[in-house]
Amino acid sequence: MPTNCIRIAGLNDGEHRQAFEIKDKFFKAYEDSEVKAGKFIVNTLVVLRGLDRKLTINIEGIITNLLCDYCTKRLEWAISTTLNFVIKESKNETKSTDEMIYVFPNQHQLDINQLIFEMINLSVPNKRTHNKSEQKNGKCDKKMLQLMQEYAIKTNNETDPRWEALNKLK
After folding, report:
1. What does the alpha-carbon distance between residue 61 and residue 39 come to, in Å, rounded to a whole number?
2. How many other C-beta atoms are found inside a 10 Å radius of the C-beta of residue 60?
3. Residues 6+ apart with CB under 8 A from 44
4. pLDDT of 39-60, one tens digit each?
5. Is 150 part of any domain?
6. What is the widest separation between alpha-carbon atoms in the chain?
């Protein structure tokens, strides 16, 4: 897997930008990933002001391996996400948080692969469907929708007579 590192040492005060392209090969290192394919552009911005270091990561792209929850047809899902971090130095190994990244004083680069992976995976929606207009325009697989309707479990709204007797006790 290619390593996506940003330079954090030896930089002058000001803004420093880097861009990365993420493709399917990136996700092969993450076997349990829900996202297996896609094309993304990652833009990073490191801002140095004296001892303060801030990192902004912006990811835009398309996830191409998701399946529609209704018809199981493949769909593409566009994402756009941005996160901001503060970079702090620590002589001890300190666990980073959602907003704070700790680095050693002599560390020159920061590997952001895990951050990229998490940002993309957290952008996956819970409900994945073609939108209403796409469903009407035939994007959803009509044969699959008919099969699902045919095999759907029909609910029985009749009340069990034992419950009727309990309702009379009120």
Report:
1. 6
2. 14
3. 6, 17, 18, 19, 20, 55, 56, 57, 58, 112
4. 999 999 999 998 889 999 999 9
5. no
6. 81
**Contact call for residues 129 and 144 (beta carbons, < 8 A):** no
Which residues, in sequence order, are CB contacts of 102 under 8 Å at separation 6+? 87, 88, 89, 90, 94, 95, 96
CA atoms within 13 A on the CB side of 143: 1
Instruction: Give the phi and the psi of residue 114 in degrees, each rounded to 5.
Output: -65, -40
**What average pLDDT does the segment 152-163 reach?**
72
Note whether residue 157 is domain-resident: no
155 confidence band (pLDDT: 50, 70, 90): low
Give the residue ranges of DSSP H helices in 43-168: 113-122, 132-136, 142-151, 161-167
Rg (CA), the chain: 24
Which strands sit side by side in the sheet containing 38-49, from one edge to the other?
14-22, 38-49, 52-67, 74-89, 100-103
Side-chain half-sphere CA neighbours of 159 within 13 A: 7
For residue 138, being part of any structural domain is answered with: no
For residue 148, pLDDT beyond 80: no
Q: Find the angle CA(45)-CA(48)-CA(50) to the nearest 5 degrees.
A: 170
For 97-133, write each residue's pLDDT tens digit: 888 999 898 889 999 999 999 999 999 988 888 776 6
Confirm whether 152 is domain-assigned. no
